[in-house]
Design a protein that fits this description.
Order of helices and strands: EHEEHEHHEEHEHEEEHEHEHEHEHE
Bound molecules: threonylcarbamoyladenylate, magnesium ion
Helix content: 25-40%
CATH class of the largest domain: Alpha Beta
CATH architecture of the largest domain: Alpha-Beta Complex
Number of strands: 15
Radius of gyration: 20 Å
Shape: globular
Length: about 350
C-alpha cells in the first residue's frame, strides 16, 4: 500500500488536503493525524473492519480498547449514557484537551473499539487538524497512538512513517505535537473519578477543579520498586536497552564511566542542569521544565535508536505535575530502574 502524506501547515489554506484525508476515513481506510498529545492512528469508530485494521497495523493486542475522538461535548453525549456531574465540570474545564473520559456507552460503536467492554474511552482533542478531520469526515474517530505496539508514541510525522509507512492509507503531517505524552485517562463510572493513566491533565488539576481529593490512581507507576530485567512487559520502548537511573550527577557519571570501560557506547538523556555536567558517547539535553521534557522525550527515545549507542541511560525526573506522566511512561519503557547514591 502507498501511504499518502498530507502536509498541512495552515488549515485555512490546506482544506483540500483535510477533505481528502477525511474521505479516506469515511471509506474505511486508516489515517494518522496529529493531536495536542501524540499522533493518533484513526479509523471510523462505527466501522468494525476499519477498526480491525488498526489492531493489525499496530500489532496491538485485541483486548486493549481504543480511545474515541469527538469534536464536541454534544458528539460525546450521542455515544454515552448519562454522565456524572463531575464529568460536566471536568469537560467544561479541560476539554478540548489531554483528558480521556471512560464512560458507559450506548452500544453504537464497533465492538472492537471497546474490546467488548461496556465502557468507552472518549476525548475531544485540542488540535485544529484533529478537530477538522473529525468534522469533515462526520465520524467519531477511534485512534490509539500511531506507533507499532510497544514502541514510543509518535510526536512527529516521521515517527509514524518509521513504524507504519505502507501499512496505512494516509498521514496528516501537522509538525510536532505540543504536549508529547498521551492524555490522562480517567475512569468516570464511579462516584469519584479514578485516574487510570497519568497525563497532561494532572491529578492536582482535577482535584482543584472538583474541590475534592481523588482516591489512589488505579494503575500505580511501577517505578517505586526496582525490577529485575525482563520482569515486566515493555511499553513506549526504544530498541536499545534503557536504564532509568535515580541519582546525583557524580554517581550517574560513575555509572556511565563504568559501562563505557566495559566497551559500551552510552547515550544519556538528562535534564538541562545534569546534561551540562555529564560526559558520555552522546548526551541529549531534554530541557529544564517538565513540559519541555515531556515534549522531547519520545523523539529522544526514537533518535537514539539511530545512533551507534548500545545502552541508553535516562535520568529519573521529579514526579511533579506532568513529571508523573513522564515517569509512568519511562518506568514502562525501562529494562532496569536503578537507584544510586544520596540525592
Ligand atoms: O493522548 C492520547 O490519549 C492518544 C491520542 C492519539 O489521543 N491516544 C492514546 O491511545 O494514547 P492508546 O490506545 O495508545 O491508549 C489508550 C489507553 C489505553 O491504556 C487503554 O487501555 C485505555 O486508554 N482505555 C481505552 N478505553 C478504555 C476503557 N473503556 N476502559 C479503560 N481503559 C481504556
Ligand atoms: Mg499507545
Amino acid at each position: 500500500m502507498h501511504t499518502k502524506q498530507f502536509t498541512v501547515r495552515d488549515i485555512k489554506i490546506d482544506e483540500d488536503q483535510i477533505i481528502d484525508a477525511a474521505n479516506l476515513l469515511t471509506k474505511g481506510e486508516l489515517v494518522a493525524f496529529p493531536t495536542e498529545t501524540v499522533y493518533g492512528l484513526g479509523a471510523d469508530a462505527s466501522n468494525e473492519l476499519a477498526v480491525a485494521g488498526i489492531f493489525k497495523a499496530k500489532g496491538r493486542p485485541q483486548d486493549n480498547p481504543l480511545i474515541v475522538h469527538v469534536a464536541s461535548k454534544a458528539q460525546c453525549m450521542e455515544l454515552v449514557k448519562t454522565v456524572p456531574e463531575y464529568v460536566d465540570v471536568l469537560m467544561e474545564k479541560f476539554s478540548p484537551g489531554p483528558i480521556t473520559f471512560v464512560l458507559p456507552h450506548k452500544g453504537d460503536l464497533a465492538r472492537n473499539v471497546t474490546a467488548g467492554l461496556s465502557t468507552v474511552g472518549i476525548r475531544i482533542p485540542d488540535h485544529p487538524l484533529a478537530l477538522a478531520l473529525i468534522e469533515k469526515s462526520g465520524c467519531s474517530i477511534a485512534a490509539p497512538s500511531a506507533n507499532t505496539s510497544g514502541k514510543p508514541s509518535p510526536t512527529q510525522a516521521w515517527h509514524v512513517t518509521d513504524d507504519l509507512d505502507g501499512k496505512i492509507a494516509g498521514i496528516v503531517d501537522g509538525g510536532a505535537t505540543g504536549i508529547g505524552v498521551e492524555s490522562t485517562v480517567v475512569d468516570c463510572t464511579g462516584e469519584k473519578p479514578v485516574i487510570l493513566r497519568p497525563g497532561g491533565v494532572t491529578q492536582e488539576m482535577i482535584e482543584t477543579a472538583l474541590g475534592f481529593q481523588l482516591d489512589q490512581t488505579k494503575e500505580m507507576p511501577e517505578v517505586d520498586k526496582p525490577k529485575s530485567p525482563g520482569m515486566k512487559y515493555r511499553h513506549y520502548a526504544p530498541e536499545l536497552p534503557l536504564w532509568l537511573v535515580e541519582s546525583d550527577v557524580e554517581s550517574l557519571q560513575q555509572l556511565i564511566d563504568q559501562e563505557q570501560l566495559k566497551g559500551k557506547r552510552v547515550a544519556v538523556l538528562a535534564q538541562n542542569k545534569s546534561a551540562n555536567n555529564l560526559r558520555a558517547s552522546a548526551v541529549l539535553n531534554l530541557g529544564e521544565q517538565p513540559e519541555e521534557i515531556a515534549a522531547r522525550l519520545y523523539d529522544a527515545l526514537r533518535r537514539y535508536t539511530k545512533t551507534d549507542a548500545d545502552l541508553l541511560i535516562c535520568e529519573a525526573f521529579p514526579k511533579e505535575g506532568i513529571g508523573e506522566a513522564i515517569m509512568n511512561r519511562l518506568s514502562k519503557a525501562a529494562d532496569e530502574y536503578i537507584i544510586l547514591g544520596q540525592n
